[in-house]
């Protein structure tokens, strides 16, 4: 009886060892030699990398073409070039709290194409007005920028108000001086909720440019605000600057 049990145990042990061996062989084949990823994983990663590289090449080519267009005379052509690649612009994180600015530092023109852009999305829900400001170095670089919609048109134009940053008490520390504070707005009746928007920038040189950007998208119920109030920009003195937009 003992001999029969010992024989059964030996048979079971041998079967278990065989199963383990089969599993190890399958695992080694799956991972390939030298710890490589399985073939399907490698192919998926390669495909994703190729897609990313293709989009980057498309973006750079579009920026180079767009930099040669005069927006004053060929604005439609410029927007047609940039619309397909606007989804790959750097994204601005817009706030929704009145009087609170979320300043973000961005570096544009990294590729030296003299053209670049930022994007943002107006969320679904009640109509929202756009209030935004940027701090940029003086000297005409960038020398132009405008709002556009990757799909459709923008029904309106953002007028620009130039201010001296040193006249405000709560701006971020500016690395490049002298600098200019630009404030702009576009009210809710000119914008669509649930839609993507972008801002293109044209540069006079191939050098990267550092900008500070703040944006709020506030419900129309907040009323017709000045941009400095919508973003909570505090003037150092009542008479230190002219009436801001």
Can you walk through the features of this model?
The chain has 245 residues and is an alpha+beta fold. It has two domains: 2-36; 89-230, Jelly Rolls, CATH 2.60.120. Helix content is 29%, strand content 24%. It has helices at residues 2-31, 39-66, 75-82, 227-230, and strands at 90-91, 104-108, 115-122, 128-137, 144-148, 161-163, 179-186, 195-202, 209-219. A five-stranded antiparallel beta sheet has the order 2-9-4-7-6. Strands 1-3-8-5 form a four-stranded mixed beta sheet, covered by helices on one side. α2 (39-66) runs antiparallel to α3 (75-82). The termini are far apart. The relative contact order is 0.18. The model is unreliable at 5-12, 22-35 and 240-244 (pLDDT under 50).
Q: What's the layout of helices and strands?
A:
Elements: H1 2-31, H2 39-66, H3 75-82, E1 90-91, E2 104-108, E3 115-122, E4 128-137, E5 144-148, E6 161-163, E7 179-186, E8 195-202, E9 209-219, H4 227-230
Parallel strand pairs: 1-3
Antiparallel strand pairs: 2-9, 3-8, 4-7, 4-9, 5-8, 6-7
Helix pairs in contact: 2-3
What strand order characterises the main sheet? 2-9-4-7-6
Oligomer: single chain
In sequence order, what are the helices and strands, one letter per element? HHHEEEEEEEEEH
Radius of gyration (Å):
29 Å
What fraction of the residues are assigned to beta strands by DSSP? 15-25%
The level of helicity is 25-40%
- CATH T-level topology of the largest domain: Jelly Rolls
How many structural domains in the coordinates? 2
The mean pLDDT is 83
Unreliable stretches: 5-12, 22-35, 240-244
**CATH architecture descriptor of the largest domain:** Sandwich
The DSSP helix count reads 4
Straight-line distance between termini: 99 Å
- What is the strand tally? 9
The general outline is: globular
Secondary-structure content class: alpha+beta
- Note the main sheet: 5 strands, antiparallel
What's the CATH C level of the largest domain? Answer: Mainly Beta
